[in-house]
Amino acid sequence: MATLDSKIPQGELSKKWSNHKAAIKVVSPANKRKLEIIVVGTGLGGASAAASLAELGYNVKVFCISDSPRRAHSIAAQGGINAAKNYQNDNDSVFRLFYDTIKGGDYRAREANVYRLAEVSNLIIDQCVAQGVPFAREYGGLLDNRSFGGAQVSRTFYARGQTGQQLLLGAYAALNRQIAKGNVKSYPRHEMLNLVVEDGEAKGIITRNLVTGEIERFGAHAVVIASGGYGNVFFLSTNAMNSNGSAAFQCYRKGAWFANPCFTQIHPTCIPVHGDQQSKLTLMSESLRNDGRIWVPKKMEDVKAIRSGAKKPTDIPEEDRDYYLERRYPAFGNLVPRDVASRAAKERCDAGYGVNETGLAVFLDFKTAIERLGKEVIRQRYGNLFQMYEKITDVNPYEQPMQIFPAVHYTMGGIWVDYNLMTTIPGLYAIGEANFSDHGANRLGASALMQGLADGYFVLPYTIGDYLSHKIQTPKTDVNTPAFDEAEKAVKEKIARIFSIQGKRSVDDIHKELGHIMWENVGMARTKESLEKAIKEVQRLRAEFWKDVKVPGTNEEFNQELEKALRLSDFLELGELMARDALNRNESCGGHFRSEYQTAEGEALRDDEHYAYVAVWEYTGENKEPVMHKEELRFEAVHLAQRNYKD
Amino acid sequence: MNLTLKIWRQKNAKAKGAFETYHVENISPDTSFLEMLDILNNNLIHEGKEPVVFDHDCREGICGMCSLHINGHAHGPDSEITTCQLHMRKFNDGDTIVIEPWRSAAFPVIKDLAVDRSAYDKILQAGGFISVNTGGVPDANAIPIPKADADESMDAAACIGCGACAATCKNGSAMLFVAARVSSLAKLPQGRVEGARRAKAMVAKMDELGFGNCTNTGACEAECPKAISIAHIARLNREFLSAKFKD
Question: Could you say which residues from 183 to 242 on chain B have a Cβ atom under 8 Å away from some Cβ of chain A?
Fold first, then answer.
């Protein structure tokens, strides 16, 4: 029976990590050679972990669903990565980065984990530079920084608008080096479909070879889940098309408890939806908010004129523009955290001021910045983003403001882990977006890259040794055991069941309906009624999936519809879990906004007395209600307060 | 828009492929090219036919997963974009569009429009890295790097590994891909340390994997979605030759 022991070390916050490192066990080089580790996923977390663990001498097997580890969705992160280097002399520090992250997360993250994250952030920048990541530099040759939402210092390192790509290529290069040395065996186009648990410990995984359909077994002494988030529950999101929650969800089914599933980040600056045939939403980096100003017209007649095409946004004089973030939050202005910026956009659009034909868009305008800095400076800073915007919308953002609207972007919730990043199943770890631990109810911009690399390069390689030190006598995992048999059989039966249906609805048809239910009821604003409705609707849709889905072809081939169907079957469970979690949390915090709980000014109203805890869900069986456990959050270093970005 | 599509269908790596003709109707000009294929596939599923397999993922031009030769051009008719960023407004109502997989000996077809690009991974495994382990590295600002060098390194590092260069080259050469990585690291002091070894190892692996030779036609640069310059090939050649002279 799993229990919730967060294993937070004793002592002063700033000493916890060093004390812990001194206390945990290590494995000798000779013994590391005998131990095997499976890593699922090759984004920033997975690739950095696999490379670092292999460098230490462990035998690593790494799995990804793409044709190459380099395709993982970390590659799409644009704006940057935070670190407390204080290179700008603007009074940044480890404590300030820690504090901003806790506050940005609306006091729903674990202090000790966040402090450690801030502590190792500086090492990440050093590591990436040593790998040859071409971060932006000043003319003097030193590293440049920019600002991101939720911070009043410039601590974000960046490589044009392609920071995620460059960091991932660094981790991928380190991984390639270990593959060439034979320390890592790479399995691209392989999808994890089940976790194998034996004697209460994680012993391996069952995968499907996406090209041949072959179902295979892989054993190890420990399994690391680095499979990212589950934002694609909403169908339309900024996630890649193949991003999914299935690996994490299989772990949940096998006994890994799932934390804060309802904490979803809605990113304020995405290109608005254009029609019902759209497949995904494109993010415009938060870094644009350094120089772009967000506004809608003050007058309803101007809104109507813009929608009808009678006026262009450039025709609206300054005094008739409502720069609503600058108006409502003078201290942070356009650089408020994402949840605040998203809700403010929704508030204006709900009031009828949306600027496109659907009424669901606001302007992001570079006019002031271009006047101040010149077009060339703006091109240097954001050129690739402006080009991307123009290719998609056919509008030139140097001349007309961009139109943006919030979209699902990131999931703060994930598999529950202790301070060692171990789940409630011994030997099973979760890192990066797949776990829940560092971002609370809202993640700050440029912190996802930081967390993925912190976990993979500098935390897991230490903490996993503490568990593996007890496994040095354990021989190579035998994959011909009843536990592996049972796990493989379950996968094969599920696939056979999907093919046996041959109903009338395609996977995408059902997925779009799920996305609609989730966006309307479990999206930017949630109520008791909407959540109860969502639970019923998702249950109905799930039943419909298992009665009426149509998947062509066979298992024994490259079958993308089967891949999608398997992922959707898990999204149909996750959607319900998210709604249940949101229904339980009778407060508003960060990205979780319950309309019933708001201040007179429309800000999120937390209830620290009753909800300063992590909601951790235990799976109890198919179509059974999960059981919730609480990890109480204790704040020793920060004082709980309502977030204030006004002054 | 109503369109006629001639699409390469091939059951698996061993099967013989052929073009099949399809029609799609009422496509909005604001639809992306891959969304148009999504619509086709959804129609095919409802008609009880097998959908067309094609690789794609991020749909914002950065993962390098999407490919496709469209009317003879890698990533279609528009410049400096990937297929996922291509929108139907670049076509006309009534057009016939020919869609093929990458055609390159080093990228065998797996099914329909999806190819095996693992050769690119193998080239990078041969030397496309700086040999540092995690930890124990100097402070990030310990080595100042001229802005121009960092910018040029970034220009080359923008490569997304999509394979358009080799698929476009009449010789099937991967020189632009290899040059982008070699050049990106060669412009940085950290990368200079093992520059010679890297250039030799990556070129040798490229040759071993069956990619052709570069004859400087520049076709790769023209089709590269990230506009990587063939000037990087010149740098690779310099790196390679000076490494050979030292042998």
Answer: 184-185, 187-188, 190-191
CA distance A448 to A445: 7
Number of domains in chain B: 2
Give the residue numbers spanning the domain of B80: 3-111
- As given in the structure block, the two tokens for residue A299 are 């007058």
Same domain, B105 and B132: no
Q: Whose CA is closest to A410, among A478, A484, A338, A505?
A: A338
Instruction: Output the CA torsion A37→A40→A42→A43 (10° steps).
Output: -120
CB pairs < 8 Å spanning A and B = 211
Q: What is the pLDDT of residue A380?
A: 84
> Whole-angstrom Cα distance, residue A206 to residue A203?
10
Q: What is the pLDDT of residues A191-226, one digit of tens each?
A: 999 999 999 999 999 999 999 999 999 999 999 999
Residue B246 has pLDDT above 90, yes or no: no
B107 and B122 in a single domain? The answer is no
Q: Are B29 and B84 in contact (CB under 8 A)?
A: no
Is residue B78 domain-shared with residue B126, that is, in the same domain?
no
Strand A222-225 versus strand A428-430 pairing type: parallel
Amino acid at A396: N
Structural domains of chain A sorted by starting position, each given as residue range(s) with its CATH number in brackets: 268-408 (3.90.700.10), 482-632 (1.20.58.100)
User: What is the arithmetic mean of pLDDT over A169-193?
Assistant: 98
Spatial neighbors of B237 by CB under 8 A, at least 6 apart, are none
- Whichever domain contains B62, its CATH number is 3.10.20.30
State which of B84, B111, B138 marks the end of a domain: B111
The answer on B144 and B54 residing in a single domain is no
Is the entire prediction scored with pTM above 0.80?
yes
- Predicted confidence at residue A93, as pLDDT, reads 98
Residues B182 and B88 in one domain: no
List the structure tokens of A196: 């194998």
Mean pLDDT of A415-423: 98
Using CA atoms, how far apart are residues A20 and B192, in angstroms rounded to an integer?
A: 38
> For the CA atoms of A519, A523, A529, A534, what is the dihedral angle to 10 degrees?
40
Same domain, B238 and B176: yes
Cβ atoms of A548 and A505 within 8 Å: the answer is: yes
User: Considering CB atoms only, which of B34, B117, B128 is closest to A176?
Assistant: B128
State whether B164 and B241 are in the same domain. yes
Q: What is the CATH number of the domain that holds B143?
A: 1.10.1060.10
CA distance A398 to A162: 20
Two structure tokens written together for A314: 């450039």
Q: Which amino acid is at B118?
A: S
CB B140, CB B37: distance < 8 Å = no
Q: At A2, is the pLDDT very low, low, confident or very high (cuts 50, 70, 90)?
A: low
Q: Is the dihedral of CA A321, A323, A324, A328 positive or negative?
A: negative
For chain B, helix (H) and strand (E) counts, in that order, are 9, 7
Place of tokens 């690779």: B236
Q: Which two tokens stand for residue B49?
A: 């036919």
Q: Give yes or no for B26 touching A (CB within 8 A).
A: no
Given a contact cutoff of 8 angstroms between Cβ atoms, the answer to whether A193 and A248 are in contact is: no
Q: Which residues of A are catalytic?
A: 338
- Between positions 30 and 49 of B, the ones with CB within 8 A of A are 30-32, 34-35, 38-39, 42, 45-46, 48-49
The reply to whether B16 and B101 lie within a common domain is: yes
Q: What is the ipTM of this complex?
A: 0.98
Could you say which of B91, B111, B131 is where a domain stops?
Answer: B111
SS3 of B129-163: CCCCCCCCCCCCCCCCCCHHHHHHHHHHHCCCCCC
